[in-house]
Please model this.
Amino acid sequence: MAIKDPKTIVSERAMQIAEAFELREGRVSRRVDKDGVGYDLHSIGTQEERFIEVKGFSESWATHYWQSLYKSQVKVLEAHPEKFFLYMVHFDKNSIDNPEFFVISG
Model:
């Protein structure tokens, strides 16, 4: 079994946290990060649809390199600002337990 690098572990855990949040909020999410649609999760509830980009990181807020959104993500944001959400999951550098979770709407 291959050992996953820390960034892959953080990214995967961030997706799991975002999916769990959606479920708690009464929405059903589906991973679309490999589909080239410009976001990571497509989530649908009884009254709302969300296009969610998930960013997980464990670097310090002060030293984290902030990458801008990709062109495909910006296109989705421009076309559907009311549906586009950025979920940021900040982990302590020594643990993937008890992260900070932020929801930013388009």
User: Anything to note?
Assistant: The chain has one domain: 6-105. The CA atoms of residues 82 and 105 lie 7 Å apart. The mean pLDDT is 88.
